[in-house]
Amino acid sequence: MVGGGRGAFIGAVHRIASRIDDRWHLVAGALSSDPERARLSAEDLNIAPDRAYSDFREMARAEAAREDGIDAVSIVTPNHMHAGPAIAFLEAGINVICDKPLAATPEQAQQIAAAVQASKARFILTHNYTGYPLMRQAREMIERGDLGEIRLIQAEYAQDWLTESVETAGDNKQAAWRTNPEMAGAGALGDIGTHAFNLLSFVTGLKVEALLADLQSFGAGRQVDDNAHVLLRFANGARGTLWASQVAPGNENGLRLRIYGTKAGIEWSQENPNVMTFAPLGQPKQIVTRGGAGLGTGGNRWTRIPPGHPEGYLEGFATIYTDAADLILGTGDGALLPTIESGLDGMWFIGACQRSSQAGGEWVSR
Amino acid sequence: MVGGGRGAFIGAVHRIASRIDDRWHLVAGALSSDPERARLSAEDLNIAPDRAYSDFREMARAEAAREDGIDAVSIVTPNHMHAGPAIAFLEAGINVICDKPLAATPEQAQQIAAAVQASKARFILTHNYTGYPLMRQAREMIERGDLGEIRLIQAEYAQDWLTESVETAGDNKQAAWRTNPEMAGAGALGDIGTHAFNLLSFVTGLKVEALLADLQSFGAGRQVDDNAHVLLRFANGARGTLWASQVAPGNENGLRLRIYGTKAGIEWSQENPNVMTFAPLGQPKQIVTRGGAGLGTGGNRWTRIPPGHPEGYLEGFATIYTDAADLILGTGDGALLPTIESGLDGMWFIGACQRSSQAGGEWVSR
Amino acid sequence: MVGGGRGAFIGAVHRIASRIDDRWHLVAGALSSDPERARLSAEDLNIAPDRAYSDFREMARAEAAREDGIDAVSIVTPNHMHAGPAIAFLEAGINVICDKPLAATPEQAQQIAAAVQASKARFILTHNYTGYPLMRQAREMIERGDLGEIRLIQAEYAQDWLTESVETAGDNKQAAWRTNPEMAGAGALGDIGTHAFNLLSFVTGLKVEALLADLQSFGAGRQVDDNAHVLLRFANGARGTLWASQVAPGNENGLRLRIYGTKAGIEWSQENPNVMTFAPLGQPKQIVTRGGAGLGTGGNRWTRIPPGHPEGYLEGFATIYTDAADLILGTGDGALLPTIESGLDGMWFIGACQRSSQAGGEWVSR
Amino acid sequence: MVGGGRGAFIGAVHRIASRIDDRWHLVAGALSSDPERARLSAEDLNIAPDRAYSDFREMARAEAAREDGIDAVSIVTPNHMHAGPAIAFLEAGINVICDKPLAATPEQAQQIAAAVQASKARFILTHNYTGYPLMRQAREMIERGDLGEIRLIQAEYAQDWLTESVETAGDNKQAAWRTNPEMAGAGALGDIGTHAFNLLSFVTGLKVEALLADLQSFGAGRQVDDNAHVLLRFANGARGTLWASQVAPGNENGLRLRIYGTKAGIEWSQENPNVMTFAPLGQPKQIVTRGGAGLGTGGNRWTRIPPGHPEGYLEGFATIYTDAADLILGTGDGALLPTIESGLDGMWFIGACQRSSQAGGEWVSR
């Protein structure tokens, strides 16, 4: 693991997720660039001192040289610190599991892409919401035509934690880097908008052809967007909207997806992810549960416990790690895993939204 | 009443709504332009034969001349047939209660506006959703600052009844006129989009300064929009979206309003209108019920029965009629009633969306 | 109307309900036993002075004698005042529409039953919740076997308005008579428990064979039950529970019905009455909406407006009045209307619960 | 671990739960009484061959003798197989974490209790639902008086998987032992009723003084109860009901708890466990989320990720394992852990219900 030392947030999530299905052990880390903090963090996590690095380049070199070297590295640093480690490990031939978005700038993204191209190692982006069983179920249903031709996609991801300018408080490390243009590259757009964008792409299989965005920074003194309204046009003629906001009081992690086709519609919300509605035109709406009645084999494949016993965010995340293990060991094809292409697509989304909005709200095509 | 004869839909709704609070009696009507149908429809409704007209002009003249002439006329014809009767009754000095949208074309709308200007009679537009107690409650809460400065408005009205091109079936009279450009003037935009637009304006008191629309006609051979995605910019800097659709399977009358300010957010859905959530930043979200605990006087004023006993669409509609009675009798000021200005605003909304979309999706300012 | 003068509650509800479908006009009343209050109340309601009575016996006599006498009388007095007027009007040959429960005591109930027996006039009890379209839909579904053999019935009606002993406040007239043993005959049991009992009987068509009740009076100084837990055994071997409470904070009018058979289950809640779930074993649960997709003719018959536009409490109540009009005019068979048998059944339920609980919680059979 | 070999269900759940917070490693097991199956199951789980036992007595002896012997054993066998291993490990001085209910018979339960009494080792029962953060939050709120004096408790746990007699199919191992009187000791009552009973006791801190039960076996040929209706009387005068059913179509794991006091009420459902409503009398109902706004320190203590990112069944279960680790290491007091007393209380509940029902439904006191 690179990043994820004391005081970090998402690193701990990755560690739990990787443990759930007992497919990974954490044995090495460059958990902080501060040597002392790296050492103490490694101690906390029972990493042997000789595999507790303070420099990711050294870690890549050393682990590549060991016979019992790591199978993969998790990169859980802020966005602007993805490219450096990703490239170092890819060049060392070590598989990379990287937090999203791909990078803070298009240039960094392209450098990673080049390194992926040049390396035999795998690159996996943790768009974890694609691990929710019902999202995979939805993808299957759409693929086999249950919704008919898709016409409409309404995606949103609303939070409220940046309603006030908490980043100026000094002690809010998460808020600070996520609202720093250089470290984050974008605000709500990159932090959560890319999740919504990735998820709708994953579930529908449709490509956005053009978009138009209206971005705002409502927080006093805020230097990145905290609200994004985006219109979407898809290659097949479908239309959609994507709303990402961190200033909508009452929303914790309101990632919601609604998809309507010529034959049926589906609706899902991340905060109660074990339930989805499926509405075939002219019939009563159905409540589809994770692993529940009538799903066929679909929804049961990525689930650990019986229906009615809720799985949550960590389990969905775990599925990404488990799929990654299968891909790396050759026991699975990783067909559902987010790749470098997902990452580049997300970077296009961020950049296109920013260009559209800076132009006063104009259409931007691929 | 003008319109609303046998086979009509909204006329019956107006009649029930007007009866609920026992403030109106239906005593005269030009229920159809077909004399025989007008006669039979009047008979159905116990209207005396001498007050059963087949021509609205004759009705306006005759009722104006009677000592016991009508206090007001309800106009419940298709959109392109609002201007004629509205102007006739206004000129005869008779108060007009008119279905929405104001008209099928901007020209018709201006003619009505001129007639309102020239007449001492009242003009009331039945944007009935403003009669829901919790929408009036929301308006009060926003007015007194409970939400702080408004930043975001997410409005939508989704239906599914035009997912297939049912208007071509021949026997679907409602679908036929509502998808006929000359009779309706617009599709989803006019039929339901104007409701969402009116409601968000009513509740927030904010003015849309500019908008950008992406309209679609998904139904095969359809000549009006059946889906509208609209970005909104408000005078105070707030941003919003409005989505109106008649092709979203699983949606019956999904009118939903979400409003977020610097201090709190509210969310409401028309299909379960006796409940609204209110989320003050940093506190648990509250479930506010119609007439329920903790509302102050607000929510109780426009309600007939105790909380937990649901009131619905007809009761909200009835409140418009009751307010209208009070306004006309001078026992109320009608401050909450939709007026000719609401109607003209709705016509601007329709026209601006159409112009924006025809230009490929460009911003249109007032 | 007998009762329902100034300051009364349920009388106004009956008046609105009777108006909604335009089948009744209020033309006479003994609205109060206080002559002055009767006169003023009649004036409020535009009842002609010669038909504003202060004595129900006089009213029964006079109206029976008039050629344009009333078609039916609504009795909306407290429970102990049902028998007197009901018998008087039945003896005068005038149809009676009576509020529930049938009476305050078994003796009164028997006297009414005898009068019904002896009269050619109709007797209808306003168990209004049977007028909700989805409850009639549920009844149809059960009748035609959609649920298989019924095994379990979970009924409840929970409120919170008597959590504190508000009846001692002096100015709470509703609380005062409803907690007065002589006027009400029972507490939560009679006021709301009989509604739940009637509704489950109506929907399932099953007969309770034996019951066991644990009644409580939690309110300080309260002389009637404010909470009732009842176990039910049905003739066909089904089991159930009925919970009625007026001391459950957070419940406004929480009337809920859940029914499970060998093939499927249904669940419904009065506070959002336009929605019901139907769960066929081994298939996804369905969201059945009032008048919505896939119902067949059932749910549409007793509804006024399209699905997604909610109807509420008053519309359900109106359906009882409309069915009553049809029954009296011979244009309907009144097959779904609550009758004197429903009333006697409810009185058995109250008495059996009281006997069971007084014995410390023993089984009581029919 | 004892039990939990190939083909078992709950063992895998315990293993995931124990891993989530990285506090336990599985290093030894008697996973099956069949030696070959024990060996293969151990291999699956990377247990060293010398610590893969086929006899739990041998395992207790051997592990007690090792310097690196296990810190605790998980017993995940069917109910009738709890006593044997529990006693063996307790006698060997090894801490025991045991699945619920405590045993299949009162005699077995007493034997375990005696062994706990005689041993210095800890005994922990995995009533995992007490690990849900909001249930611990509710307990805290009740303890500090937020609900006032508790008056009413409505608990239920409804499933539908035994609606048909699937245990006769031959290949349904879970259904087979759970409906076998000797292996299970009781049906729905033991399998899920004890969970509801334990949870209500945990949350309210109230003691059931007397109960009355009506048990049924609806499934054709079924030898244990599949539905239980139970009336409860608490020491403080509160009343309640508990409903456990495995024959209610549409219910997956419908564990629900509703508690009402003199000052407020709370409602919670296990299927969406990150949300609870709190209704202070006379104020709007609040939606309390796991870790969300306004909770004080309470709800955040037993949670891993931010509010709005759902935690589920496995995380709640993990909290039990983590608390157990803290108790055993002395880094926590285990105050919230279910103990042998919880187990004996559950056995009393099962036995009392059975005696009450066999007597035709009579009250049974402690």
UniProtKB/TrEMBL annotation, chains A, B, C, D:
Entry-linked Pfam families: GFO_IDH_MocA (PF01408), GFO_IDH_MocA_C3 (PF22725)
GO MF annotation terms: nucleotide binding
Lineage: superkingdom: Bacteria
Residue ranges of domain GFO/IDH/MocA-like oxidoreductase in the record: 135-267
SUPFAM superfamilies to which the protein is assigned, alphabetical: Glyceraldehyde-3-phosphate dehydrogenase-like, C-terminal domain, NAD(P)-binding Rossmann-fold domains
InterPro entries documented for this protein: Gfo/Idh/MocA-like_OxRdtase_N, Gfo/Idh/MocA_oxidoreduct, GFO_IDH_MocA-like_dom, NAD(P)-bd_dom_sf
Domain Gfo/Idh/MocA-like oxidoreductase N-terminal, first and last residues per copy: 2-125
The protein's name in its UniProt record: Gfo/Idh/MocA family oxidoreductase
Organism (species): Rubellimicrobium rubrum
Species classification: Bacteria, Pseudomonadati, Pseudomonadota, Alphaproteobacteria, Rhodobacterales
